[in-house]
Prior knowledge:
It is a single chain. By secondary structure, the chain is an alpha/beta fold. It is about 35% helix and about 20% strand. It contains ten helices and nine strands. It has a seven-stranded mixed beta sheet with strand order 3-2-1-4-5-9-6, sandwiched between helices. A two-stranded antiparallel sheet has the order 7-8. Strand 4, helix 5 and strand 5 form a beta-alpha-beta unit. Helix 1 packs across helix 8, helix 5 packs across helix 7 and helix 8 packs across helix 10. The N and C termini lie far apart (about 40 Å).
Amino acid sequence: MTPTLVRQHLRHAGPPSRVDRRVRARDWAEIQERMLVPLHEAVYERLEVGGGTRLLGLGCGSGLALLTAASRGAAVTGVDDSSPERMRLARERLLPEGHGAPARGDSRIVWGTPADLAGAGGPAYDLVTAFEPVGAVAGDSEGLAETLASAAPLAARGAAVVLVGWGPPERCATSGVLRSVGRLAEPPRDGGWRPARRDDLEEIAQRAGLGLDGSGRVACPFGYADVESAVRGLLSTGLLDAAVAATDEVQADKELTEALHPHRRRDGTVWMPNVFRYLIARTR
Length: 284
């Protein structure tokens, strides 16, 4: 099986989702986050991430992408202000002094925004990543261009900036599942499903004042041991929070279980092929 990073701090209209955020964060870290590991590895391989790399991870969540880069020798800094529960897990992974293991050298986890890193000193970053895929729900790229623009002064001139998006719906089986369950939140409002557009990432990069420097696609199938794990993993992304808020978690679980049925294999596992796209931009 393979983890995903998707923007989980969307602002929805209506009452807040009635979920245990600590459970959601743990499900994310234990089930879902690993789905994008092939993407992380492809990006790091292409950009030759290793010793000497100074990486800034925006929206770092529970930190698996940072951990992967650190294992290649990179000095990593993660910043996020969306989920204190996920950030706690990131600290456990990368700064585990209190858990019987030494802290990983040159690792920092910061609650906040890139502005909170200004004036911190140290060499400029040569790689900035935004690994939370956009293009799954309406508004999931809101504010991203501004975040990238605020991070650019922390990076060296010509530093790589990586953005990630969902691939075309016809190549992402999970898109159909999200769309089906997302209908619970109709009439459409903030957080409703929308198909990814071909130039989403380029438009965001250009609004952030970045130059374009290539792209790629990576297959990232979502695989789960059983339907229960699939339900827990997909709910942990936050992409279905509007559906949960519009009905309740029991109804959302039921609809999600039914939507996953075509993707269940004879041995009980769940398998959904997906393709994700990444864009490499450059600071000016």
